[in-house]
Every structure is written in structure tokens, then in C-alpha cells.
Automatic annotation (TrEMBL):
InterPro entries in alphabetical order: PemK-like
Gene Ontology MF terms: DNA binding
SUPFAM superfamilies per UniProt: Cell growth inhibitor/plasmid maintenance toxic component
The protein's name in its UniProt record: PemK-like protein
Length: 188
């Protein structure tokens, strides 16, 4: 290798180091703002708020009749989860060998800081089951498959355990869910 070639390699290395140092020195303004906000709130790092796949949220499943309350359609992308939105959570595994799986929920209410939702499934076997209602295709299934929502079980989990994606179930489909909850499970 000639001296000119070595000089070019050294120059490339110096330039790469300068660029890396400059990037590290000048963070994204959004990152700076979030770091400042976390510091003001007494949080050292925000990453502890994000749930990972292996850190399944504590969720509770209850019969729908035991959770009966008023139900209304009110999706509003205001930062708080509202009825009519579709959110995702890590469902606990069915057995010890399984891993948690991310599932979609149709939000039907709140209980304090907890979200109440009905799980969706694209499995066509639910077509024949009375406790499942056809909700068609939508953003709750990224491949566009027809889906069903389970009506007889309500999932309650902390709002901090969900992932929002800006998905909303159409009002007519939500009203079909609400009408079945009112007729079959005592909701108002």
C-alpha cells in the first residue's frame, strides 16, 4: 500500500470521527426537550416506561356482565385513550412455553387509569361462535383480514401498557358492538 493510499484512509477515518463527534455533540432538539422534561419530573431515563415484548402487562379478564356500564362512542386523539379507538397490548402467553403476542383491542370504556377493551381476532372459526361479532376488516389487522371481536370477556389493563397507532373503529361498527353489549350483557 502506497503512502498516498494510507493518507486517504487516515483522512477518511478522521472525517468519520469528526462527523460522529459532531452528531453526538448536537442531539436532536426533541431528544433534548424530552430529557429536560424527564429531568423536571424526576425521571432519569424514559426507556423504563416502554414495555417490551417479554414484559407483559398485568391485565385482568372479566365477564362482560360484571363490567356493565354506560357505553358510548367518543374517539378523540387527545392523548388519552377513548372508546372507539383500537389499541394494541402484549397478551400474556397461554402456557409457559409460549411467548406474549401483541393483540388488538377495541376500547369500550375506562376504569380510572385502566382501559377496558374487547379483543379482536382474524380467525374465521369465530364466525360460528355467539360470543364473537364480525367487525370486518380495518386497521386492527395489518394484512386487511376480516376480524371478529369477543363480546363475553372484557380485558382491563393499565393505559401505560398499550400501544396506540391512531386507529379508530367506524362508529357504525362500534354501535353494533355496543348494542350487543346492551342486549346480552346488561350494559347501558
Amino acid at each position: 500500500m502506497g503512502s498516498t493510499q494510507r493518507e486517504r484512509i487516515n483522512l477518511r477515518g478522521k472525517i468519520a470521527k469528526l462527523v460522529t463527534d459532531r452528531i453526538n455533540k448536537h442531539k436532536n432538539p426533541l431528544d433534548d426537550g424530552l430529557a429536560h422534561l424527564n429531568d423536571r419530573l424526576g425521571l432519569k431515563e424514559a426507556h423504563h416506561l416502554v414495555r417490551t415484548r417479554l414484559d407483559s402487562p398485568e391485565c385482568h379478564v372479566a365477564p362482560s356482565a360484571d363490567c356493565a356500564r354506560s357505553i358510548f362512542y367518543a374517539p378523540d386523539m387527545d392523548g388519552q385513550v377513548d372508546p372507539g379507538e383500537v389499541v394494541w397490548f402484549w397478551a400474556p402467553p397461554m402456557n409457559a412455553e409460549s411467548t406474549p403476542m401483541e393483540r388488538a383491542l377495541v376500547v369500550i370504556g375506562r376504569h380510572g387509569s385502566d382501559v377496558l377493551g374487547l379483543i379482536t381476532s382474524p380467525n374465521p372459526v369465530h364466525k360460528k361462535e355467539d360470543s364473537w361479532l364480525d367487525i370486518g376488516a380495518g386497521p386492527w389487522d395489518e394484512t386487511g383480514r376480516q376480524s371478529w371481536v369477543r363480546l363475553d370477556k372484557v380485558i382491563k389493563l393499565p393505559e401505560t401498557s398499550i400501544r396506540r397507532q391512531g386507529a379508530v373503529i367506524p362508529q357504525s361498527r362500534f354501535e353494533r358492538i355496543a348494542n350487543r353489549l346492551r342486549a346480552d350483557y346488561g350494559w347501558a
